[in-house]
Structures are given as C-alpha cells and as structure tokens.
Amino acid sequence: MNIMSGMPEQSDATARTLEAMKHIVETGNSEWRSLPPHAYRSQEIFDLEKEKIFRPGWILLGRPDMVPNAGDFVSIDVIDEPLVMVRDKAGKLRVLSRVCRHRWAPVCDGAGNTSSFVCPYHAWAFNLDGSLRNAPGMEDTPNFKPEEMGLFEVRHEIWQGFVFINLDGKAQSLTERMAPIVDEIKEFRLSEWKLVRSRDYGECPWDWKVFMDNGECYHHIGAHKDTFEIDFPGLESWDSPNNGNYVLTWCRSRPTSVVKSTAGEDVVSPLFSSDIMPGLTETQRLNLCLIYVFPNYFINPWPDITYYVRMFPLGPGRIRMILDYLVPPHMEDGPELQKKLDELEVFVNKFNDEDTAVCTFVQRGVQSTKAIPAPLSRCEGLNRDFALWVSRQMTA
Ligand code: FES
Ligand SMILES: [Fe+2]
User: Do residues 245 and 390 both lie within one domain?
Assistant: First the structure.
C-alpha cells in the first residue's frame, strides 16, 4: 500500500503493462500492436479497469422493451454493482441500485413485475422510483430522514434503442460521443427493432478484452472457415473512420452469396427472412456490418435480423455473456417466428462454438511467458483501435 496515495503498490508486471500502454498512446498505435498479454490476465489490471474504464464509461445494459409495463423490472449485475432496470408507475425507465439503504441486502433479484421492492432482510419497502416507502421500527433512530433514504439511481442514456449506464455520472453524453457513426447506420433504424429472444450463455472463461479483440473478421479464414467465411471472406473486411470511441467494421460478401429480397433488392443471403428491413443502403444490404462501442457493446445488424451481445466482465479472464435477438418492426412475433429463431440458433450456436474454442485457447495463451504483444494485420483495425482506446483510458 502506498501510504501517501492510499492505492495498492503496483507490481513490476503491471508497471510494465502501463508503460506499454503509454507507448501505444504516444504513437497512436501506428505500430499496429495488441495490448500486452499480461493485461488480459491480471487482477491488478482488472481492478484498475474498474476505476478507469467501467465506472467512467458507458456500459450497455439492455433495451427499453425489456421492461415495457409499469412495474416491470430486470436485475443485472455490472462489475460490483447490483442494479435493476425498472419501469416506474409514471412509465419512466429508471436504473436503480439494488443495494438496500439499510444493511446492503439486494432489494430484488431476477426479473418480473412488482408494485414495490421489499427488502428480504428487514422488510424495508421502496417505491418503483427508488424512494423509501416504509422502514419498520426506525422512528426512534437519530437523524433518520426517510426522504433521503431512497435507492441510489444510476445515470442512463438511450442510444439507438439501447439502454447504456454511466456509473460515475460524469461521462460525456453517449449521443454526442457516438454522433459520427449515425450517418452510416441510420437506415437500420435500430431503435424500432423488437426484442424477440435472449440467450444467456452464463460465465465464459475469457477476458472481456479477448471478447472484444475477437470481433475482427480476419479470423473468418481460420476459426469460421465453415460458417462466415463462406459468404464473407475475412480478408475482404475494412473499418470506417471513427473518433476512437467505437469501431464500425464491414466485410464484403461474395457475389455468389447475393440473392433477391422479397422486395426485389440485392441482399446477401438472409439469415432469417427475405422480407428484409426496408430502406437499407446497398452497403448495408451487401456487407456484414459489425459495430463495437467500447467497452462492452457489440451488435451485428443483418438486413433481416439483428443480434447483439451484452457482455459483463466478472474478473480477469471471466465474463458473463447474453445474446439478444431483434427483428425489424414489420415482423410479427409468434409461434412461426419463434420456430424460425430455433432454426437460426442452430447456426448461431455453431459459430458461437467456434468463437468459444478460440477465445478459450487465447485466454490460455496469454498465461504463457512466451506470449508477447502481437503484430496486427490490416484486417485488425478493430484490435488496433481497441488497444489504443484501452491504453488511453488506463493511462489518463
Ligand atoms: S438490509 Fe434491507 S431492510 Fe435491512
Ligand atoms: Fe467469431
């Protein structure tokens, strides 16, 4: 412990990793290098990431339609924060801390519909807007002010129909931060799509940065040679210019993979339905589109279906991963659509197995003394920009 700063002393390995990150920042990562492998396995680095990346950043939580009606709630843990996304009585979406203002028990768990949150420990009751409704036996406690004892609210912002939170409440507006990307994706009208299924993959044994790194299309030529590479050759991918807060990657489809949509437009073989989202540009119809908003948001909008991942770090080398499916607003949910989703999930599980295999062996690889910072290919602009973004946050 450093007595002056109150911070734990850093190990030599952490000091070296932060030095390498400083170099990446100073050069703008013009040398196209990955982060040091130590960053993917270190508890010290993860503790720093909580303070430098996750509390000050914008974290994807979900979609507003996860809580469509007053009283609907969904519990989600983000880093060390037990949270609940709830629709209050007035219809306002709120993100509240689940930590009871008495002695810190979680006031709810799971998901459902309720008229209030009643703590399971000593039965304090909170309204859906977080305010304290009832605290039995507290009348004689000195200086106890019920009006100041509500659940803490966490700042949130809705961008393109997704709910993001900012734990320290000080970040630049996400809408401002993401302004440059909107021109290239606005025709998807992502805020109008409907959530039709979620698949919780639970705890996965790789670091959140291994997950983000794995977003490049370069690995189509190896890991996905029997799935994505068939329609989208990995060496045919490129990134749009960005402002450092996100990456927008495209991967060109093979001419042989292009078919006609129901409306007669050229479109890359639909995953789900030929009745695609109307109004998309040719670029959006003919290329794979991948959007990464650092640190935890990944979405892959197709012309006919969209899936995105909610990824929550649990520790160095451990994440929880949930995949959600959205369909265009003109598609009706029901048994027919759910049956088609079952079929789609066979494909998704196949490529997810491929990604699981590579992320698992990469996480093993970063433990090795022979693992050193990696040179990146022209198809790994995501990795270059992500390493630069992480380095900037960690050394600021
Ligand atoms: S901890 Fe919640 S009422 Fe005591
Ligand atoms: Fe992959």
Answer: yes
Query: Do 219 and 141 fall into the same domain?
Result: no
Q: Count CB atoms within 10 A of the CB of residue 183.
A: 9
Give me the domain span that covers residue 238.
Answer: 192-395
Closest ligand 1 atom number to CA of residue 124: 3
ipTM given for this complex = 0.97
Is the pLDDT at 25 greater than 80, yes or no? yes
- Percent of the chain past pLDDT 70, that is, above it, reads 98
pLDDT digits (tens, 9 = 90+) for 200-226: 999 999 999 999 999 999 999 999 999
User: Ligand 1 pocket: which of 97, 98, 100 to mutate (most atoms <8 Å of CB)?
Assistant: 100
Ligand 1 and 102: CB distance under 6 A = yes
Atom of ligand 1 nearest to the CA of 119: 2
69 Cα: distance to centroid of ligand 2 (angstroms) = 36
Based on the fold, state whether residues 140 and 207 are members of the same structural domain.
no
H or E segment to which residue 164 belongs: strand 162-166
Give CA torsion, residues 234, 240, 244, 246, to 10 deg. -70
Indicate whether 152 and 203 sit together in one domain.
no
For residue 123, give the ligand 1 atom closest to its CA: 3
Q: Is 132 in the pocket of ligand 1 (CB under 6 A)?
A: no
Ligand 1 atom with the smallest distance to the CA of 100 is 2
Residue 2 scores a pLDDT above 70 = no
The residues whose Cβ lies within 5 A of ligand 2, an ion, are 355
What is the spatial distance between Cα 117 and Cα 129, in angstroms, rounded to a whole number? 10
Ligand 1 in reach of 100 Cβ (< 6 A): yes
Q: What is the pLDDT of residues 247-293, one digit of tens each?
A: 999 999 999 999 999 999 999 988 888 999 999 999 999 999 999 99
> 230 and 342, same structural domain?
yes
* CA R_g for the chain: 23
**Residue for token digits 């013009």?**
30
Q: Same structural domain for residues 134 and 198? A: no
Q: Is the pLDDT of residue 194 over 70?
A: yes
Cβ–ligand 1 distance for 105 under 6 Å, the answer yes
Residues 216 and 153 grouped into a single domain: no
**Helix, strand, coil percent values for the chain (each to nearest 5):** 30, 25, 40
- Is the beta carbon of 340 within 6 A of some atom in ligand 1? no
Query: Is the CB of residue 251 less than 8 Å from the CB of residue 287?
Result: yes
Domain count within the chain? 2
